[in-house]
Every structure is written in C-alpha cells, then in structure tokens.
Recover the amino acids of this structure.
C-alpha cells in the first residue's frame, strides 16, 4: 500500500509523463498530493533564465578564445602566454606520458654519466703516459732546432766547397791553382769537422744538463 | 540544440581543434542556462557568479578532451559548473544550510493555483533561494531538464537522495506558496 510520500515521489519521477490510473485516482481525492503535484509543476515549469551582462559575455569569449588559441609570447599578450605549449600535456592519459618522460630522463642521465666517466679515464691514461715517458722540455726543443740549423749551414758550406772543387777540375791543366784550391778544400773540411765536433759536444753537454 | 543545427558533439570536436567560431555557437546555445543555474544557486552574489560563469566556460574548454558524445553537453557542463560552485562555497566556508523538516504541513487546498503566472514565478524563485544549496541545485537542474539520474551523478549521491531533496524542496515551495492565499 502506497502512502502519500510514495505517491509524491512517483509524481516527481514521472515528471511530465502521465501517472497510472491508480495514482491519478489517489491524487484526485487527496488535497495534499494534489497540492504537491501543482507545486512541483510550478517549481519545474516556472523557468525564467537570467542573462549575463554584455561585459561578462565579452570577458568570457575573450578568455575562452585565449584558451583555444594561446597568444604567442611577446606578441602583446605576455600575461596570457603559457610557458609550455599546453597544460593538457600532463592531463588526460598523462600517466604514461610522465612515465615515458621519466624513463627518457633516466636513460639520458645514465648515458651522460658513462660518457663523462670515459672521458675522465682517457685523461688519466694520457697523464700516466706522460709521466712514464718524459717529453723534451722547451729548452731542449730549442736546442734541437738550433742544432739542425747548424748542421744545415755546415752541409750547405760543404756542398758549396764541393761545387767549387768541381769547377777546379773543369778548368783542366792549371796545377798550381788546382793545388792551392785542393789545399783550401782540405782546410775547409778540417774546419767543418771541427765545427761539427763542437756542435756535437754542445749537444751532449746540453743533453746532460737537461 | 535546435533541429537542423550542428550537434553539440561536433562543435566540441571543432573546439578541440581550436575553432573559436564553434565555441561561440556553443556559448550562445547554453550561456543562459549555465548563467541562470549559477545565478540562482548563489543568489545575491553577482560578481562571484560572473567570475564562476567565466571559470566554468574556461574549464569546459580545458576539459574538452574528456567530453564524449554519449552524454548531453548541458549535463556535462552543469557538472563542471557544479564543481566550480561547490569549490567556491567550500573555499568561503559559507555553506548554507536550512534545517531539514520533512514534515511540513501542506495546505488543504491549492489557493495559489489561481495566481498570475508571473507572480508564481517570482514566488518560486524566492522560495528556491530559501533552500539549502543541495536542494536548490536539484530544483534548478530539474528546471533545465536534467534527469534525476544525471543530477545524482553531478551531485555524486544516490538517486534516492536526489529524489528526497526534490521532495523536500517541493514541499517547502508548497508551504511558501500556501501562505500567499
């Protein structure tokens, strides 16, 4: 057996739809339920919509257009410009995205660490090699260059002397002059030998000094 | 949505692609319902309602991805507006409550049935303002054609709770109107 409250709930659920004959019969005979039905119709039926002001409309449209197409930073809308393309990046099915980004960062960090370790190891090996095999100092390097120049100039002199002796042979038959030149050449050779010896001695002394 | 016009789902899809004209159409279609709902839910708070109304539409766009064609756009938008309003009420700790009195005496007859339609509308609006937020919301959503089942989803309560709230609201309205004999 339905009481008035059950019938009133049935009136609510029915809305605009018709009630069953039994319910209609009860409502027709019950002032309370009839009043409830009328109040319900008045409550739901008396709809008058309020209108937002033109300023509100304009504000909503401007704000929403900004959301739909965010202004480019520095193009007059810096206040509304987003630092990132979209906040939605972290929304929706963001869990998988976040996990993927976290994994990428971890991978990147590991790779950077490995590269850094490798570079350090190479630097240590180079230093160790430098300790095992002493390199010539700047002074000895300077000395080597000097020695090379001395030897070069001596070779040049020797070649010049040889060329002069060739000239001597070519001037056939002049014995006196030839002899003199031959003696001069011997003297030059001796002089070259001495200079070479001095250079070698200097070299040895300098090497020892180092 | 009127007959022959672009369906809400299609407009939402275009909004997802950044189409502002689609949004303008959607806004024009539902601005009155959403504004009235908030305005009646929070009576006498014009500035707050204006802000919440804007916040609701921004959230509609920010949550555009979560909308599916399966649900009515208006119910979905009301749910967003509900959350915005409830957040505001919680923030301000000014949750209104009217003591529940399920045993309101009903008048023996219905004298206000002969009242002018505009007068009834005004009295109903006044009576609705006297309700608690939850009860008021049920009436406001029913006025805008939202089924009880969807109201239950919006308020995150059982359908019986929603029916109970509506029943109380109507009884109270019946009493208020009965005083204007």
């Amino acid at each position: 057996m339905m009481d008035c409250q059950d019938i009133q709930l049935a009136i609510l659920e029915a809305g605009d739809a018709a009630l069953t004959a039994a319910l209609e019969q009860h409502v027709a005979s019950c002032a309370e339920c009839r009043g409830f039905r009328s109040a319900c119709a008045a409550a739901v039926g008396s709809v008058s919509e309020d209108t937002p002001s033109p300023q509100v409309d304009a504000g909503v449209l401007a704000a929403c257009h900004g959301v739909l197409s965010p202004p480019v930073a520095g193009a007059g809308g810096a206040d509304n410009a987003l630092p990132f393309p979209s906040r939605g990046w972290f929304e929706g099915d963001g869990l998988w995205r976040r996990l993927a980004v976290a994994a990428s960062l971890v991978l990147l960090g590991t790779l950077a660490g490995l590269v850094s370790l490798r570079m350090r190891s190479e630097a240590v090996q180079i230093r160790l090699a430098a300790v095992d095999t002493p390199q010539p100092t700047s002074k000895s390097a300077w000395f080597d260059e000097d020695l090379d120049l001395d030897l070069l100039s001596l070779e040049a002199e020797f070649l010049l002397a040889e060329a002069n002796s060739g000239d001597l042979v070519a001037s056939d038959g002049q014995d006196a002059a030839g002899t003199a030149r031959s003696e001069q050449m011997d003297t030059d050779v001796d002089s070259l030998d001495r200079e070479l010896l001095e250079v070698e001695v200097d070299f040895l002394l300098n090497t020892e000094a180092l | 949505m009127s007959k022959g016009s672009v369906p809400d789902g299609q407009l939402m899809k275009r909004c997802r692609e950044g189409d502002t004209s689609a949004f303008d159409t959607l806004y024009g279609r539902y601005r009155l319902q959403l504004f009235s709902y908030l305005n009646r839910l929070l009576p006498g708070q014009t500035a707050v309602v204006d802000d919440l109304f804007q916040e609701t539409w921004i959230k509609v766009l920010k949550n555009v991805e979560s909308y599916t064609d399966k649900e009515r756009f208006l119910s979905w938008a009301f749910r967003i507006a509900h959350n915005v309003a409830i957040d505001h009420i919680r923030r301000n700790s000014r949750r209104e409550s009217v003591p529940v009195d399920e045993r309101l005496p009903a008048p023996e007859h219905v004298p206000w049935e002969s009242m002018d339609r505009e007068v009834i509308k005004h009295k109903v609006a006044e009576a609705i303002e006297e309700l608690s937020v939850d009860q008021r919301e049920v009436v406001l959503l029913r006025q805008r054609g939202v089924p009880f089942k969807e109201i239950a989803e919006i308020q995150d309560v059982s359908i019986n709770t929603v029916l109970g709230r509506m029943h109380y609201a109507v009884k109270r309205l019946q009493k208020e109107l009965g005083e204007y004999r």
